[in-house]
Amino acid sequence: MFAHKLCALLDKNTITNRDIFDCWFFMQRQTPVNKSIIELRMNLPLKEYLQKCIEQLESIPDKGLLQGIGELMDEKMKKFVRSKLRTEVIGLLNLYKSFPIL
Predict the structure, then answer these.
(1) Phi, psi of 11 (to 5 degrees)
(2) Cβ neighbours of residue 60 under 8 Å, at least 6 residues apart?
(3) Its pTM surpasses 0.90
(4) Distances (CA, A) of 14 to 20, 39, 63, 98, 99
């Protein structure tokens, strides 16, 4: 499921907030990723795909990350999403890129 969520980050025309949050959820729990699913679906080596994800996330603003998911969260989680989610996901993607949990 995690591999498919990672693929969903760049599968669509735009990155959805739910996919960003779901990827954070899996990575912060150190969920193993199925490398072969990502490489098959995205036609790229895992490291290159994760780098593309990082670059895309670096290009979007934090503003608006609660859209579509905020109603499901308490205030503490909303504050996290507004201020840290995107940078946390970028950091975790860098970690998975350097030290993949397979």
Answers:
(1) -70, -30
(2) 15, 86
(3) yes
(4) 11, 20, 15, 26, 27
Residues 6 or more apart whose CB falls under 8 angstroms from that of 51 comprise 97
* C-beta atoms surrounding 9 within 10 Å: 22
Q: Which amino acid is at 40?
A: L
Summarised one tens digit per residue, pLDDT across range 41-51 is: 999 999 999 99
Residue type, 89: V
Q: State the residue range of the domain holding 42.
A: 2-98
Which single residue is written with the structure tokens 């860098």? Answer: 94
Report the number of distinct structural domains present in the chain. 1
